[in-house]
Design brief:
With 728 residues, the protein is an alpha+beta fold. It is built from 25 helices and 16 strands. It has three domains: 31-176, Glutamine synthetase, N-terminal domain (Ubiquitin-like (UB roll), Roll); 187-579, Creatine Kinase, Chain A, domain 2 (2-Layer Sandwich), CATH 3.30.590.10; 594-726, Four Helix Bundle (Hemerythrin (Met), subunit A) (Up-down Bundle), CATH 1.20.120.1560. The structure holds adenosine-5'-diphosphate and magnesium ion.
Length: 728
């Protein structure tokens, strides 16, 4: 009999490791596979270069003649780098990236061929969209979808293919991707934030959102990974008893990176750098075999594309090292899961960070304006912000005392809290006499510089201010950052719009500008106080306290998503022209469908593994025990036999019980699944999967994991936690 677990272990232990050639200086090859500014300058006429820059930075429309020039330039550059194909590269709602490669080949009438790539190929393509999720928007008979070039994200070459970042929309113009609404949300944020900036500095002409993500992931030996059908099919272990040692000793975080993993890191960083992804930081994370990588922050749209690209590179390079990348939020029970912190801020066209406290009172008022408006936005739109991090896999991580809870709150640190408290309590001279404008003195508390060095950091908050940016920590490791970026930037855009209306109306009534701003901010501080929490967000007390404050604590995806169909959220999306009602509802359907399918697949795996792996193995071992007892009975006298066989009989009984309970629970779970499948309404069906099917996972697992402890190690077919977590 062959046990695949032992074959996998043997392979994993004996395999020679891949060694990496040195790559030279980063500055020599950074961005060499991208159509970056330097390349543009080289390949484009002065006029075309300038126009393209205007398209990129000012959002101007590109004219056909320039597009032709750009296409010719990109083609020449790509061919000079050895590219033979091109593709429109986009992010459909599957969460992955999509590409369909076409060759540059164009046959000529004389039986030969040329390489062709024109403005038509650059600007727009018409892929068959029928297999991508549309949430009912696209009928199967109208399968056409369009991809359209996004000039604000840099084109790049992967392997032998020129990749053009694009948006993806249906024949009737509805967005079928993440990028389209994100670009619209970023545009709205720009409009609103720029207008607010003009209160302080007339020369501000543009505001961009900046994003620096931190990508956490696990690595596992590929052979061992493939011996676990649950991991191969769902990305996580559905069974598995805890390893005697895992993260208790806290010896992994920031520890020495193992040589084999270091080689993998060197190689993926090299690939990432050639593609212009500014990855900078690497370290071990809390759990064994868990790591993190982070880049220097970039403009949000570029950063999102770079994260999508990086996830792909990580996976690809890991394979070369016989490692499998796990982006799942919770691959292992009992050890930390993986997130993707989104560090988010705003930057003006002059390169100023709007979340950096300034030196002058005026600059500080601007800082406070944005800080307070963000807090207010998170309070007002907390439901939306919670919903965009919801997924079947992230449900396993949020609120598990190692990741932020499902309660949205904002941490700003004690120094800033004090500042806001002072403002809240402050009196403005003109409070008494509305007309005494000239008496108004700007009483902005001095912002202490100390928090700039991140002295007090709270790692339990889902949304923390860290000196000059906010860190949204609830995002899952496998997520497309576009989703949180849409929600945060849209929420803030709306908040700033409201803010400006209120300020303008006070100014109209005769208040001076600073006074008006100060007054509104002071009111916002009061109104949004409940969302601010400085304590331990993992603690039980916070759950109670949050309830008192009226903050939502939504632990499951189907419940978190419900907000998407409320009039409030639909209006928000429509008011800012980010998504139409139809598009919002379609996305809700897609997210729910995805949830249902994920739970359904896991439930099937649990059934299959129980029946085909666990129960037969347990029975085989049980038979051995039974044979042994029979043998003892033959050779021992009755009295000794009774005395000695007692514990063995107990063992047999225990195993039988676990087997029978597993059988019973699996059959009940299948019945519940069948019942849920008969329901047509997606909301109801997702609810049933959550409340009726999902609870069986833990129950079944409990007994399977007990069996793992009882059954002879020689027989156990699934690699164990100690092997998954420690061999590489
Ligand atoms: P930590 O793990 O302590 O949170 P890291 O250094 O791992 O810190 O990550 C910090 C991230 O924040 C980096 O990706 C960094 O580029 C990003 N960041 C720094 N400043 C900004 C900013 N102004 N806007 C967006 N992201 C930023
Ligand atoms: Mg961080």
């Amino acid at each position: 009999m062959s046990n695949i677990r032992f074959k996998a272990l043997e392979l994993a232990i004996s395999r020679p490791k891949r060694s990496i050639e040195t790559t030279g200086k980063v500055s020599d090859y950074f961005g060499e596979n991208t159509f970056n500014q330097a390349v543009m300058r080289q390949y484009l006429s002065k006029e075309a270069f300038q126009q393209l820059q205007n398209v990129i930075t000012k959002g101007e429309k590109i004219d056909r003649r320039i597009a032709d020039q750009v296409a010719t330039a990109i083609k020449s550059w790509a061919i000079s780098k050895g590219a033979t194909h091109y593709t429109h590269w986009f992010h459909p709602l599957t969460g992955a990236t999509a590409e369909k490669h076409d060759s540059f080949l164009s046959p000529t009438s004389d039986g030969k061929a040329i390489e062709h790539f024109g403005a038509g190929e650059l600007i727009q393509q018409e892929p068959d969209a029928s297999s991508f999720p549309s949430g009912g928007i696209r009928n199967t008979f109208e399968a056409r979808g369009y991809t359209a070039w996004d000039p604000t994200s840099t084109a790049f070459i992967m392997d032998d293919t020129l990749c053009i970042p694009t948006i993806f929309i249906s024949y009737t113009g509805e967005a079928l991707d993440y990028k389209t609404p994100m670009l619209k949300a970023l545009h709205s944020l720009d409009t609103e934030a720029t207008a607010v900036c003009k209160y302080f500095d007339r020369t501000t002409s543009k505001v961009v959102a900046t994003l620096g993500w931190e990508q956490e992931y696990f690595l596992v030996d590929t052979a061992i990974f493939h011996a676990r059908p649950d991991m191969a099919l769902s990305g996580r272990t559905l069974f598995g008893h805890a390893s005697a040692k895992d993260q208790q000793l806290s010896d992994h975080y920031f520890g020495t990176i193992p040589e084999s993993v270091m080689d993998f890191m060197r190689e993926f960083e090299y690939e990432a750098h050639r593609l212009g992804i500014p990855v900078k930081t690497r370290h071990n994370e809390v759990a064994p075999s868990q790591y993190e990588c982070a880049p220097v922050f970039e403009e949000a749209n570029m950063a999102v594309d770079h994260n999508q690209l990086l996830m792909h590179i990580l996976e690809k390079v890991a394979k070369r090292h016989h490692l499998t990348l796990l982006l799942h939020e919770k691959p292992y029970q009992g050890v930390n899961g993986s997130g993707k912190h989104n560090n988010w801020s705003l930057m003006t066209n002059t390169g100023e960070n709007l979340l950096s406290p300034g030196k002058s009172p005026k600059a500080n008022l601007r800082f406070l304006t944005f800080l307070v408006n963000i807090i207010k936005a998170v309070d007002t739109h907390s439901g939306l912000i919670r919903s965009v991090v919801a997924s079947a896999s992230n449900d396993l991580r949020l609120g598990a005392h190692e990741a932020p809870p499902a309660i949205m709150s904002v941490f700003i640190g004690s120094q800033l809290s004090q500042t806001l408290d002072e403002i809240e309590k402050s009196k403005i001279n003109s409070d008494q006499a509305e007309s005494a404008v000239e008496e108004f003195s700007l009483n902005i508390p001095k912002i202490p510089e100390i928090f700039l060095d991140n002295t007090d950091r709270n790692r339990t908050s889902p949304f923390a201010f860290t000196g000059n940016k906010f860190e949204f920590r609830a995002v899952g490791s496998s997520a497309n950052c576009a989703k949180p970026m849409i929600a945060l930037n849209l929420a803030l855009a709306e908040q700033l719009r409201v803010f400006r209306k209120e300020v303008d109306s006070l100014i109209e009534k005769g208040a001076n500008k600073e006074e008006a701003i100060y007054k509104i901010i002071r009111r916002y501080i009061k109104e949004s106080k409940r969302i601010r929490f400085e304590g331990n967000s993992y603690g039980e007390e916070w759950t109670t306290e949050a309830l008192k404050r009226g903050l939502a604590n939504i632990s499951s995806t189907p419940d978190a998503l419900k907000v998407m169909t409320t009039e409030e959220v639909i209006k928000l999306f429509e008011d800012h022209d980010v998504l139409s009602r139809r598009e919002v509802v379609a996305r809700y359907e897609i997210d729910l469908e995805n949830y249902i399918k994920k739970i359904q697949i896991e439930s099937r795996i649990i059934g299959d593994l129980s029946h085909n792996h666990i129960i037969p193995t347990a029975i085989r071992y049980q038979n051995t025990l039974v044979e042994n007892v029979k043998g003892l009975k033959e050779v021992l006298d009755m009295k000794t036999f009774v005395k000695l066989s007692n514990s063995q009989m107990q063992n047999i009984k225990e195993i039988s019980e676990h087997i029978s309970i597993v059988r019973q629970l699996v059959s009940e779970m299948i019945d519940k699944r069948k019942k849920a499948n008969k329901v047509d309404d997606t909301t109801e069906k997702a609810g049933l999967y959550n409340t009726e099917v999902l609870p069986y996972f833990e129950k079944i697992r409990y007994h399977v994991d007990k069996l793992e402890l009882l059954v002879d190690d020689e027989l156990w077919p699934l690699p164990k936690y100690r092997e998954l977590l420690f061999i590489k």
